[in-house]
Amino acid sequence: MKTTVEKLSPTRVKLNISVTPEELKPSIDHAYGHIASQINIPGFRKGKVPPQLVDQRVGREEILNHAVSDGLDGFYRQAVTEEEIRVLGRPEADIVTWPEVKDFSGDLVLAIEVDVRPEFDMPAYDELTLTVEEVKVSADDVKDELDTLRARFGTLVTVERPATKGDFAQLDLVAKIGETEVDSATSISYELGSGELIEGIDEALDSL
């Protein structure tokens, strides 16, 4: 298999790949076997249909299409490996030249474009210096962070005293229009003073 690499940009190349009939033959054989296993011809078991009868049933063009589709990824990967190309993303392939349908002679010519990692020279960095500003943490910063951690990971305990701001209360709420109940919720955990529930709830709880 012959491959040439055309650089389209610093981040994209085109692979021009020529596949000989001998290199395509394994894919041709696989195509015959796969299609033979899917067709029914009286007197032959599936997968045992001779190539000549497969040609008559589906046509050589279908065999060639199947073979190229089956072998395309392998040809591409082989070219990438041989040319040591560091690809990025999915390739875009075009078939430039097909082999002859009548006898599968002639090369299969592919043009495949793909994004690649750019090549660049690493600048000297051993003499670079960095200045990192000192981080100053005040006592208030520490206290605020500790309060945040307590609120996130702390365990609630029951106390016997009037509720105050910052306490958590477990509420059962019922919403009514007149005497008709329209909604309800039970076991709601609410922090007094947070203002996250309906207006007036903090004042009502503060009196309990």
UniProtKB/TrEMBL annotation:
Keyword Kinase in record: no
Boundaries of every Trigger factor ribosome-binding bacterial domain copy: 1-149
Superkingdom of the organism of origin: Bacteria
Keywords: Coiled coil
SUPFAM superfamilies tied to this protein: FKBP-like, Trigger factor ribosome-binding domain
Coiled coil ranges: 125-152
GO molecular function: peptidyl-prolyl cis-trans isomerase activity; protein folding chaperone; ribosome binding
Biological process, per Gene Ontology: 'de novo' cotranslational protein folding; protein transport; protein unfolding
Name of the protein this chain belongs to: Trigger factor
Native species: Lujinxingia vulgaris
